[in-house]
Amino acid sequence: MNPVQLYKKIPKNLINEKIKDELLSFFSNQPKPITGIGSILLKELTKDGSIQWSDLIDLIGYFHQKRKEDEDIWNTNKRKHFGIYYTPYSIARRLVSETVGNSIEDVENKTFYEPCVGSGVFIIAYLDEIIERSKDINSKFIQKIIDNIYYSDIDEDAVGLFESILVRYIEGRYGVTIKPKKE
Known about the structure:
Blueprint: H1 3-9, H2 17-25, H3 36-45, E1 46-47, E2 50-51, H4 53-69, E3 72-73, E4 76-77, H5 78-82, H6 89-100, E5 112-114, H7 121-133, H8 139-147, E6 149-151, H9 156-174
Parallel strand pairs: 5-6
Antiparallel strand pairs: 1-2, 3-4
Helix pairs in contact: 1-4, 6-7
């Protein structure tokens, strides 16, 4: 089931910040759902005993976007007013793959800027592309790449969300501990 369909299965009265925090906890190596809906989400996000990382990122991004629809600003909602739109991981990954091309030479010395970070789907796709193409995955290499990534967003909540995802994602997916960037 795709993340949008999964989100739509959650009863509206259960969609709150606790669910977002529970989803963030799924980045650990041994996620432990707290609520009944958390157990259902974890089951849906797991395939062959492993979390489907791209689906988790997509679900968190979609969750964030939909929460912005609940916030009114002037005569519209915050999501539409600020142009907060969800990009699925699969599309971000394809765009990143085509942009990076065949060469990842000296990639740890190149910079990456994401002006509309949202939940970080483009940065996550970029990191996955680089890490999966690299032969030597270690914390020093990944940290150097992270240190050359810059991001911003008109939505301060999105920046905070991405920052809470990044370290958890790298540790959960690749088993590497990194230091978050100091912006």
